[in-house]
Amino acid sequence: MKNDEKSITNQDINRLLRRGVAEIIVEEEMIELLRSGKKLRLKEGFDPSFSDIHLGHMVSLRKLRQFQELGHQVVLIVADWTAQIGDPSGVSVTRPMLSVEQVMANAETYMQQFFKVVDKDKTEVRWQSEWFDKFTLTEVIQLTSKFTVAQLLARDDFSARYNDGRPIALTEFLYPLLQAYDSVAIEADVEFGGTDQKFNLLLGREYQNMMGQRPQQCFMTPLLVGTDGSQKMSKSLGNYIGVAEPPNEIYGKVMSIPDSLILQYFELVTDVPDEELGEFKQGLKDESINPMILKKHLAREIVSPLYSQKEATEAEENFTKVFQKREVPEEIEEYHLSFSEFAPDLTQPVNIDISRLLVKIGLAKSRSEANRFIAQAGTTIAGETVTSHLAEVQSGSIIKVGKRRFAKVINTDK
To answer: Which domains does the chain have, with CATH numbers?
Structure first.
């Protein structure tokens, strides 16, 4: 069914193509498609090598949702086939080789988070293996014959590594070609991605043209800066806010961003009207608005659509109590465990190996991370700062790591 041409207004087009958009190739063609009344196929691919989505991903996902609200079709491509190949050479740490079971588990988690933002009922899910499982060597050679090494070396990261004499595996050259083939397989009208995906998106556009299809539009969104205020949001950098994190954690992390990011976050991951954003900008400039007030507003705007208005309010109350009034939260997860398991000297069972304990109760990912928290005076037990990897712990003690993570430990030893 086609969209009603009258349903797309200049206001709709402005909202779709201006706010939260870095570049569109080709914008005039994009506007023509929107006005045509055609139900567009919007391609969004994801690599199930990893399972989590953060606010950086939400920038493009929110755009997909806006297009869906105007009647367009999102096509989510699960790159299950390439995830199982990974990078056998080990050159690319971002492409680990995964089993079918790992791919399926990651994909399930990813989609649960994806549909927190995008309308599931208006999304078509496709798996790469639908077409690549049937690929023959002849078809692989035909695909590679369409492009030259010089074209691939035009991609910034390939070019930099080649010029530095660093290795590039042949499999890495194949990934952009396979992504381009995905666009042909689903007959994409528009492909979405961050500005770092520009090369791959353009390759898909070029390959569609070679195959007699109308070239897809390349819709690129800005890269959201992480909580550190300097680099793009990334799990590997630890500067991310995950969409599946608890409301209190999301709220607290938003409150931790530098003031310089407030307007960017409002623009890219909320629906606050442009007029209000203008007022916020002026208020920050002339110092008539307290940045703390704006951050609380921002945190509510981010938590509410992911959870609910009630949970956003509760997260704000928790933040005020724990971080502004320095009180202990009412609800703290309890861990029942044997203290003797963490006591190197069984004659003094209260002297616990804190780094091991933090890993056990999930407040640290590894002992090295736990030791770093301790060295940075970022760990307290019953309100006392931990200064050594061995410390006294009583049953019922509350352990705090950083500003937002708490746990209560209960000794099960008799």
So the answer is: 5-221 (3.40.50.620), 247-324 (1.10.240.10), 334-411 (3.10.290.10)
